[in-house]
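re: the backbone from monday

yeah here it is again, tokenized this time
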């Protein structure tokens, strides 16, 4: 077994972060420092105790976890002075997974967590690296830093010069990655992961939080909008969360990954037609959706409620008409000799996603 390390993890209560923490506890003897923001109803320690209980961790695993009260949106991560210096002096690797992934979020909300949060974590990373302790900074970006409305093939080790964004999420993640790349150019040991839209796992479609694309699917399940300006053949890039976690850890273990960026995407994205087919399979009681050629769609034909719903969908629509594609050369090379395959997101996978959401009652209400 390799020597134990101290890992500092942000976003440990989110979809991606909790899966990372689970695997660290299951597969390593590493010590985990988790930055957790207290909620109004429970402390940061209570939130993590609940999280670890859901994971089924044993006492030994729990003893390796230390919860630090903080907030990525605040200067110095909201840490006490004592904790700030201790983390700086003890951390071997940083995994920055905290993010606001709500595609409909306002700019101020997204900027505070995605951009300012990255600036604050980079301040810690640079200080820890100057101390001679920090060996790696792992940054979870998004494939959509390229802008979902940008008509190009996004390369892994660079950012496009003139991306066209569909929402504040994409733009703030783009600006955050620019900050990371600036720090990398100054000598910070960086590895960047760019997953596309992260959804349920490849086995059951299981997910801990229904966010990002799930609210979009619920709107159509309830017939709140009967017409959609798109095409049945238009695809949307989604990846199972277990692939993102397993690929990240496999790549992180390879010394040659340092300084590179990895697109964690599917090479066979599902289509809108597949999504609507599965919707029909799971319930004839779901209202039908008419797909209209974008240049023939007229918002004036919608009733007032539909107009309001349609405006709320604006941040999502770029994903259903996008001609953006992704280079995966770094990822394919890194995973070639590992047991982690690129994900298969076919019709069967869409059935798993919808089936799990229905099993959990997600589609029972429209809100």
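seq for it, each position gets an aa:
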């Amino acid at each position: 077994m390799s020597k134990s390390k101290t890992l500092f993890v942000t976003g440990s209560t989110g979809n991606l972060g909790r899966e990372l923490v689970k695997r660290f506890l299951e597969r390593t003897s590493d010590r985990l420092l988790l930055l957790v923001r207290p909620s109004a109803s429970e402390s940061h320690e209570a939130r993590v105790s609940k999280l670890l209980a859901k994971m089924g961790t044993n006492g030994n695993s729990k003893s390796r976890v230390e919860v630090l009260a903080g907030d990525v949106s605040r200067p110095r991560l909201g840490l006490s002075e004592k904790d700030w210096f201790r983390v700086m002096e003890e951390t071997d690797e940083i995994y920055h997974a905290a993010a606001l992934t709500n595609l409909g979020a306002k700019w101020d909300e997204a900027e505070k967590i995605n951009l300012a949060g990255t600036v604050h974590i980079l301040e810690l990373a640079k200080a820890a690296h100057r101390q001679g302790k920090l060996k790696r900074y792992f940054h979870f970006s998004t494939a959509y830093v390229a802008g979902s409305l940008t008509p190009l093939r996004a390369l892994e080790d660079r950012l496009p010069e003139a991306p066209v964004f569909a929402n504040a999420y994409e733009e703030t993640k783009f600006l955050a990655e620019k900050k990371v790349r600036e720090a990398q150019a100054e000598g910070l040991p960086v590895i960047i992961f760019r997953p596309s839209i992260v959804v349920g796992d490849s086995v059951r479609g299981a997910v801990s939080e229904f966010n990002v694309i799930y609210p979009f699917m619920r709107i159509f399940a309830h017939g709140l909008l009967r017409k959609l300006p798109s095409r049945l053949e238009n695809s949307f890039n989604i990846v199972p969360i277990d692939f993102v976690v397993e690929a990240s850890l496999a790549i992180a273990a390879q010394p040659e990954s340092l300084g590179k960026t990895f697109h964690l995407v599917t090479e066979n994205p599902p289509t809108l037609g597949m999504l609507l087919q599965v919707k029909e399979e799971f319930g004839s009681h779901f209202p039908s959706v008419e797909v209209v050629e974008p240049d023939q769609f007229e918002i004036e034909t919608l009733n007032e409620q539909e107009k309001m719903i349609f405006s709320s969908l604006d941040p999502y629509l770029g994903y259903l008409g996008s001609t953006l594609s992704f280079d995966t050369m770094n990822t394919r090379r890194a995973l070639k000799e590992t047991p982690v395959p690129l994900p298969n997101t076919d019709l069967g996978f869409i059935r798993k996603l919808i089936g799990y959401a229905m099993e959990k009652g997600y589609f029972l209400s429209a809100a």
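The two ends are 48 Å apart (CA to CA). The mean pLDDT is 90.
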